[in-house]
Known about the structure:
Blueprint: H1 2-9, H2 33-46, H3 54-64, E1 72-76, H4 79-89, E2 97-101, H5 106-114, E3 118-122, H6 133-139, E4 147-150, H7 162-172, E5 175-176, E6 178-179, E7 194-197, E8 210-214, H8 217-226, H9 248-278, E9 286-287, E10 300-303, H10 309-318, H11 346-354, E11 355-358, H12 366-384
Parallel strand pairs: 2-3, 2-4, 4-5, 6-7
Antiparallel strand pairs: 1-8, 7-8, 9-10, 10-11
Helix pairs in contact: 2-9, 3-9, 4-5, 4-8, 9-12, 10-12
Pyridoxal-5'-phosphate (PLP) binds near residues 108, 179, 181 and 199.
Amino acid sequence: xLAASATAFDxxxxxxxxxxxxxxxxxxxxxxxxxLAPYLERIDxxxxxSNFGPLVLEFEDRLAARFDRGATVxxxxxxxxxxxxxxxxxxxxxxxxxxLPSWTxxxxxxxxxxxxxxxxxxxxxxxxxxxxxxGLLAALPxxxxxxxxxxxxxxxxxxMSPAAWRAFQDATGVKVIIDAAAGFxxxxxxxxxxxxxxxxxxxxxxxxxxxIASEDPVFLSRLRAMTNFAFMGDRVSRHVATNAKLxxxxxxxxxxxxxxxxxxxxxxxxxxxxxRIALSDTTGVTFQDGWGTGWISSxxxxxxPPGTTDPVEASLTASGxxxxxxxxxxxxxxxxxxxxxxxALPVTEALAACSLGLPFFSDLGGDQIQxxxxxxxxxxxxxxx
Length: 385
Ligand SMILES: *Cc1c(COP(=O)(O)O)cnc(C)c1O
């Protein structure tokens, strides 16, 4: 089963070593067919397959109930489109700048470009790799043009402060959309719009999907229209839009995943706790602040001592422990974005050089945890001698 998951993840670069013994870097946690059956039967009975059917609306209500202060949720066909359409729904001047960290998955930067804005890469501030409102405020005077939007990112799903971004938006007029793609567990406030991905690799997956939570009904109705040909309760296309609706089948998976969420969350938290304990006497391994204790995600990214990531990664690979640099060297080096303006990015470059994704999934076994810990210990010890 693990080998099958590893194959699905690594179709392009299947390692040459015996797959059965390898520990894959990730393994999705999805509802099983039997869990879906009651929801699929509801679809059959209703004969309603897409276009804001009863399962999608129920799924959106249950997602919204996870947020404070009466936030509302709009589902979208995937997280990247959700970011693109959220920016489009703001109706900002084409070619204006959207500030974002380079320390993110490339989807964030793709969404900005697809929405007709120019990504402006700004350095992150904290050890945790987050672009903060204070950091962006300090960078704004150096912007190479008018900045109309900002897209800060929840680093590997860690909690953010939408209230602080709301204050930034009120003070500067720069519209903020938070990319909390991996932040299903921690996202609880939508004082500015927050996007959560429902991709199979995230903690609550439907396969492909995403949603935006917001407290602004005007913005949400524009976003909804962006997902449905700019129709607003009729068949009149008011502006250029697309089709990015979630189907009833995807909502069925989402409802089954929500039913199981308390158990899923406990399993991720237990796996994280055991991995932290196994590595507690290993110096040089720093977990994300609060990871697995205050909040959970489907990835484990640690920071290693400067200059050790390449040899540690090679040693883990040789021991059958797969790793991944989830965010590579940052988006600014990707050919799709090298022509975009960027401020100096020393913190991003340092983080990219010392961050490494270790194997992590909800059913990570005790023997796998011991293997990861001992491989990491001997990799680091080997560097000192
Ligand atoms: C996963 C991810 C996305 C993209 O979400 P999809 O649903 O896969 O399109 C965007 N941003 C970040 C930070 C992500 O981790």
